[in-house]
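My current task is to audit a protein record that another person submitted. Thanks in advance; the entry in question is below:
***
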Amino acid sequence: MPLDFILIIIIVRYLRKFLQLPATMPEWNIRFNWILYSAIVLIALHFSFNRFNVMTVIVEWLSIALLAYLMYILYSNEKFKPASFLLTAILPYLVVDIFSTFIKMINTGIFNSWNVWIKPAETFAIIWGIGTIVLTRRQRRELAKAQKKVVEEEQNNKVISAMKANLEVQVAERTSELTKQKEELEEALKELQATQKQLIQSEKMASLGELTAGIAHEIQNPLNFVNNFSEVSKEMLEELNAERLKPKAERDEQLENEILNDISQNLEKINHHGKRAGDIVKGMLEHSRTSTGVKEPTDINALADEYLRLSYHGLRAKDKSFNAEMLTDFDNSIGKINIIPQDIGRVLLNLYNNAFYAVSEKQHAVNQQISGNPISYEPTVSVTTKKSDNHVIITVSDNGNGIPKNIIDKIFQPFFTTKPTGSGTGLGLSLSYDIVKAHGGELKVETKDGEGSEFIIQLPFA
């Protein structure tokens, strides 16, 4: 049958292309070429001997044999397993073809009577084969797409794995760099903290130097009292001894008792002023040594008053011509509050020094005015304390020149100063701000240009 030859030609060409026989299996490619040539020769013979029944039957059986041989190759050889779906597609047609040819060869009459069933069977087999091939090709395309997708995913996974590995290396390198930078920053921070401590100590020693003259003046007063009362007491003792050397009838006992009472009072005054001198020295030592960082109950009024006088006398020691009025208004209901006295004393001393410096500068400016236009100015520094709920408010104000608006936001910055070079470190207000914050308080400033400034310290009781 011509259809058999057409099927053989189609199958051979399909297998050569599908399995790429010339490249993958050249020996089978040669064999299939012979099958192809044989099919062509047989189809030529079929049309040549169409009138001779015997030759026609022989040619048909040869075509069936070639087709069956192809099926055998697909079935038996593992190399052709990918094309095994052709067995399912062609086998029904091959069975019908063998059956119809065999019946035709035995009895033509029976064949003609059964042909009404054989033709539909052949048609069904052909449709089955075409459908199987189409369905299989579609499935293979989908499978190929799925495989391609899997391959792409695997490639993507490989790329992602490579990127991940590269990223991990970069992260490790970056982490190492950050760790190194962190260590460098920590080292720099330690150096800064050490430098800060040195600067605080330097600032403290600088303020101690400013206190020296004031302390000398303050300690001189109780020492003068001690010396005076000790000399008077010595004279009274000599007078008492002289009285006791007199005969008993001439001694004045009332005078002796009065002298003893006066000596006792003098000793009390000597003790009082001696303690006063001791307290001043103690305060100086506390200011000079490193702060313990421990809060203790402290009389804030006494602390504010003491450092006010020390600051004033320190400035007076530098400039004998300077005079200023000191006004105080202390709230006696405050009592003692928990603070670090050395640190708060340092804050007060910085504010007092700045206040006296401000009024001193204004006084010098006033003194340089033209004599024909005299200006009345009295330097004044005021200190007040006030209890407000759970806080104590300490206000240090002056009637100096005030702080210009363009620098008001900078005064608490480290190393910022308006004083001439060599007159200030620029750390006083910065350290004062930090100390007050460390106490849980607040340091604010209010100023009017040309009229003065007011620094307000707010400290909690606890």
Remarks:
- The two ends are 116 Å apart (CA to CA).
- The first helix runs from residue 2 to 18.
- The chain has a mean pLDDT of 77.
